[in-house]
Design goal:
alpha/beta, Rossmann fold, Luciferase, domain 3, five-stranded mixed beta sheet, 24 helices, 30 strands, 36% helix, globular
């Protein structure tokens, strides 16, 4: 749950970051040791960095035996004839027609073929790293491949059938990757389940995907599956990897035992399964969050995965290991398409070094992992970046006068340099500058022509970076990171500009589970603030039903478009039209240079009783920008006479449960002090209707209303809720998206009171 990112350990570092540089760390302090994949209970496969677990030698001969080059890899580059196949299917064993466009005619290939190419180039490079008992341990691509094959044979031995799934319910780890790749090698379908899912949610997904095997990482997750096993007719075995079961149980295996079973199966058996695979067959299921009904199983083909891993990452300037090996920290849920395509499949495609964070990463330990590993590329959802921003703001506000002024000066200089630099993004419009610790806005000059002061500005920015910002980035673990991506939900302008002030541009993208990742990507050479970048070559886009401002529904076509929703023909035909275009349900506009700007979602558009169409996100973002005390804002007004809003305040998280507490954050307390209130808790503000805070919020709402295009866009009533939104509370989904229908139902009485009072 990314809302849990407290960055507690970063606080003490940032307080001294302006006085001295941090001790040398980063990759130099990460030792390359053997990855001894045992469990805490001493049950784990023995894998070293020099040889596979059973004492085999990683020679070209042994790998060559495992790689049937003549039968498999000659197919690489051969054109797949799927002209007679339909554009979509709802069957797990179905095949589809591939949408090949002349701008990107790469021949289709399978996941195994992609791994084989990577193995050819990167066999001795570090592939996966994890921390065992305080020491970083790594395995090479050769070891990774052989462990995936052993896992695949183990799954076949347990009875995995073609087009049935292996569901994985656990935190990111090498075993998650072995299980996923092994599943595909064995002809199964990888199905991730969020670790926060209830037993009922696990049952729905496992039953819908016909899971033969479920892989879990802890006793807690095992208990969920044991509770529902009797309702899962296809389930044959459960595999554990981080915590071995407390007692021996029938059909429950450790990962070590599964690999041992795999060793009993001849290599030729697995080779036959691999050689029968086609790129237009399903290999991954991504289940949507189910905010508007039952979760939908998004079927992704092998070609969806391999094509996206190659071309979308290229558009994001991900480097091949021959140029520079990318280092990535894996911590976001792999059951979501963003993390899975970025960490797992793109990692194999380009030979990246994937380092796994601790299971409590989003409860505070992530920053420690980032500082130790020093990634070169990093993906975060908006809430992660917002929490980092809020923590820096809190530390800055609590610092001494000189340090605070130094940070303000450095960020202002750098922000101005970034937004006025013509090489950053062509054709930009006049951006807005703001103080990192206030909401004052100043419009910077739009003239991009060189001036006599440009060299001075450049010198000031370099000086600011040397004295202050480089130390901040090092404290956060971003000293070497040149590619910082944000996905899964919209990013506010405030957050984007804050990080520009730290010289950390956040590259946005746009995609869905149904597009296998991002068909629109930003990068250093393809960047415009507020946009989601440009379309990846080979991905086509059109806007339908455009309004006067050029805003329409985004429709997409290409090799990345999903196969269909599993067992849901009606939902599939709603999403994919007769020509193969995916109707996303999202609205946006394209500027003259082809940059995409997302404006909202059709299902989220509020249509008032007066017939006005109101996109809620821009108004919600404006309120949060005006009022730093506000954590979440949700606009109400569908089929109502006027707009109202639910607000939550920024509060701390319980260190044990990670649920929102009653105590305000330092930033929120500072806001209260500034407006004349001494309160420190949400209950004091709401229970006593703190006059100073309520007045300040009302004034902020009025400022937002004054900027609105028309009267129907004004917020007329609002309420502060007792608790902040959270995943645990149900108001946020696993990727921190607002679950609007859940909020509408949960706070129905509060919402109704806005409009009942008017009747009276």
């Amino acid at each position: 749950m990314p809302e849990m990112l407290l960055l507690r350990s970063a606080g003490s570092v940032l307080r001294t970051v302006f006085l001295s540089r941090l001790p040398p760390g980063g990759p130099g302090c990460v030792r390359k040791l053997s990855l001894n994949m045992q469990y805490q209970q001493e049950v784990r496969p023995s894998v070293t960095n020099s040889s596979p677990s059973d004492g085999q030698t990683l020679s070209k001969e042994s790998l060559g035996h495992a790689l049937p080059l003549s039968s498999l890899e000659k197919a690489r580059g051969a054109q797949l004839d799927c002209s007679e196949e339909p554009l979509w299917t709802t069957r797990a064993d179905g095949r589809v027609h591939l949408r090949v466009h002349p701008t990107c005619p790469q021949p289709p290939y399978t996941v195994h073929q992609m791994f084989h190419e990577a193995l050819d180039k990167y066999r001795d490079l570090s592939a996966l790293g994890c921390k065992r008992q305080g020491v970083w341990e790594h395995i090479s691509y050769s070891q990774y491949y052989l462990l995936a094959r052993r896992t695949a044979k183990g799954f076949l031995k347990l009875g995995l059938e073609r087009a049935h799934s292996v569901a994985i319910l656990g935190f990111n780890s090498p075993e998650w990757f072995f299980s996923a790749v092994g599943t595909v090698f064995a002809g199964g379908i990888v199905t991730g389940i969020y670790t926060t899912s209830s037993s009922e949610a696990c049952q729905y997904i496992a039953h819908d995907s016909r899971a033969n095997i479920i892989v879990v990482d802890t006793q807690k997750q095992l208990e969920k599956i044991l509770k529902i096993w009797k309702n899962l007719p296809h389930l044959k075995a459960v595999v554990t990897y981080r915590e071995a079961p407390a007692r021996k149980m029938a059909r429950v295996y450790t990962m070590d035992e599964v690999m041992g079973l795999g060793d009993e199966l001849p290599e030729e058996t697995l080779d036959a399964v691999i050689s029968a695979q086609q790129p237009n067959q399903c290999c991954v299921l991504i289940y949507t969050s189910g905010t508007t009904g039952s979760p939908k199983g998004v079927m992704l083909s092998q070609d969806n995965i391999t094509w996206t891993a190659r071309h979308c990452s290229q558009a994001g300037s991900i480097q091949a290991a021959e140029v520079q090996q990318e280092v990535v920290v894996s911590y976001l849920p792999l059951s979501h398409i963003a993390a899975q395509i970025y960490d797992l499949w793109t990692g194999i495609q380009w030979g990246a070094h994937i380092c796994f964070a601790e299971p409590d990463a989003l409860q505070g330990s992530l920053v420690n992992t980032l500082r130790e590993v020093e990634p070169t590329s990093h993906l975060g959802v908006p809430r992660v970046w917002e929490k980092i921003m809020e923590r820096i703001q809190e530390v800055g506000a609590g610092s001494g006068f000189i340090r605070r002024k130094m940070l303000l000066w450095a960020m202002s200089v750098t922000l101005e340099q970034n937004v006025t630099c013509p090489s950053r993004w062509p054709g930009r419009r006049a951006p807005t500058q703001y103080s990192p610790f206030s909401c004052e806005h100043v419009v910077l000059p739009a003239d991009r022509s060189p001036s006599p002061t440009s060299d001075l500005k450049s010198f000031k920015a370099r000086l600011a970076d040397f004295l202050v910002l480089a130390k901040v980035r090092r404290a956060l673990g971003f000293a070497r990171c040149r590619k910082n991506f944000c996905g899964a939900a919209p990013l506010t302008t405030e957050t984007q500009q804050f990080f520009l002030g730290l010289d950390i541009p956040l590259y946005g993208g746009y995609g869905l589970s149904e597009t296998s990742g991002p068909p629109f990507v930003s990068s250093l050479s393809n960047y415009r603030p507020g946009s989601s970048g440009k379309a990846v070559p080979g991905c086509l886009v059109k806007l339908v039903n455009k309004d006067a401002e050029g805003v329409g529904e985004i429709c997409l076509w290409g090799r990345n478009i999903f196969m269909g929703y599993l067992n849901m023909e009606d939902k599939t035909t709603e999403a994919i039209d007769a020509e193969g275009w995916l109707h996303t349900g999202d609205t946006g506009r394209l500027d003259e240079d082809g940059f995409l700007f997302i404006t909202g979602r059709l299902k989220e558009i509020i249509i008032t009783a007066g017939g006005e169409n109101v996109p809620p996100v821009p108004i919600e973002d404006a309120v949060k920008m005006e009022l730093p005390i506000v954590s979440n804002a949700m606009l109400i007004g569908d089929q109502r006479k006027f707009l109202s809003m639910l607000l939550t305040l920024k509060c701390t998280l319980d260190p044990d449960t990670c649920h929102p507490t009653d105590h305000l954050t330092e930033q929120a307390v500072e806001f209260c002090r500034r407006v004349g209130s001494s309160t420190t808790t949400v209950s004091e503000i709401v229970g006593r209707r703190d006059e100073a805070v309520y007045r300040a919020i009302q004034e902020g709402i009025q400022r937002v209303n004054r900027k609105a295009a028309a009267q129907p866009y004004h917020i007329q009533k609002w309420a502060i809720l007792q608790k902040d939104f959270s995943v645990a509370g149900g108001e946020l989904g696993p990727t921190l998206k607002l679950r609007r229908f859940t909020v509408l139902d949960k706070y129905k009485d509060v919402i109704d009171s806005f409009y009942q009072e008017q009747k009276k």
